[in-house]
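Take a look at this chain, tokens included, and explain the fold to me:
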Amino acid sequence: MPKDFNVRVFRRVLRPLCAALLLSVLPTGLAFAQDGDLTSSAGVFVNPPRAKTKSKRSEKSNVRRGYAAGRTRAGKTASSGSGTKRDATANAEALNTKAEADIKAGRFADAAAQLKQAVRLKPDFADAQYNLGFAQFSLGSYADAVEPLRTAARLDASDSDALEYLGASFLNLGRHAEAAAAFEQAVKLRPRDEELFYDLGTAYEGAGNLDRAIEAYKQALVLKPEHVEAQLNLAEAYAGRGKQAEAVEAFRQVVRQTPSNAEAQSSLGDAYRAQGRYAEAAAAYREAARHETNDAELQQSLGYVLGRERRWSEAAVALKRAIQLKPDFADAYVNLAWVYNNSNQFEESVQILKQVITRQPATPAAHFNLGFAYTRMAQTGGKKGDELKALYGQAADAFGVAVRLRPDWPEAHTNLGGALGGTGRFKEAIASHLEALRLRPDYPGALFNLAVAYRKDGNKKEALNTYQKLKATNSKLADTLYPLIK
């Protein structure tokens, strides 16, 4: 049973199924929802996705290493073999020397044209193959860079530069497993190079091998403890692996090194949120928001954790800010309505939901929360007669749209049944509860509501049969049900 379950409402036997709606509290029934979404007696509260971190670096700087961009083999011109072969070699090396000057001047297209001729004349010219790959890489022609770089690495097994840029080319092409293989060879040649281990971690992370990524990032940090990018990516890999405690500590390390790093603060908040440490998450999000004042997703995340802390007014401020920054932010509208429902501001909830439904009518959670707002309005203020029936009718309409948009949503079906019961349409209510149970046979809330609907429809036998089914799965809830149907 959820903490906010109000048992007393079920003892109002003469109220037509009014609070049977409150039993829809099992978040696993939200087919479209994320882990951690909350479905409660106020509706659905959408758990925001984790912050989108900046893309991992893949393009190498031409001067990052400090070595010459172009390479020649001065003094190593072949002197043996036929004259034709010697001439081809000499011409290839001359073309490579000219291309080197073009590379240093940033004329990569000119360099590539000359180097293509050079490798045609002498295919086993390792430096020309490397320079051609480098020029193509610098032009952003990553696919064209692959073969000459791979050839250079094959011709010269000690060429870690060729392997490095081969890995970077594969990264830019999204071929992460091949990138990892190239970087693995490179780190064997340069085992003290923290940047290569960082790149290796990036490749493994892209390939979905988070365990290997974690090991690579950790090695980069052994070599350079102040490597903030490696620390941040390590934290992200821990989070992706579900190791939230490790992620928290890694993000905290980034924050200690770069206190104004909004990305790290936001990700730290995400890690705290994943652990249910909502107050700490709120503090991290607030700090991130100090540096990123116009980030709607950040405000949404802040509003969510404040809502989980039941800090309604603060949550509302953050969610309103998210909507102000991003007027089409459907989840922020849905969550603000949930906050309003929890703070008994049902009219405000209806108004905010009508806004998002006007903008994005195919938002099932908005219709779901609207149904709850109308239901709670029906349950408060001593409403009777036509007014009460009209509110339940509006609730039924809202839940009905949610069902049409998400037919596989058990909570929506059983709450539709509750609203239909509120209008006296018990047979339709029974059908809705049965559909909820078809989708989730062990759903206690739907069993409870079905039993009440059967009893209200005059079918005591089926009500008692349903009670027995509920007793087998949730005896405490069954004890609450029995006085209503005996």
Observations:
- The CA atoms of residues 123 and 458 lie 90 Å apart.
- The domain at 1-31+362-486 is CATH 1.25.40.10 (Serine Threonine Protein Phosphatase 5, Tetratricopeptide repeat).
- The radius of gyration is 32 Å.
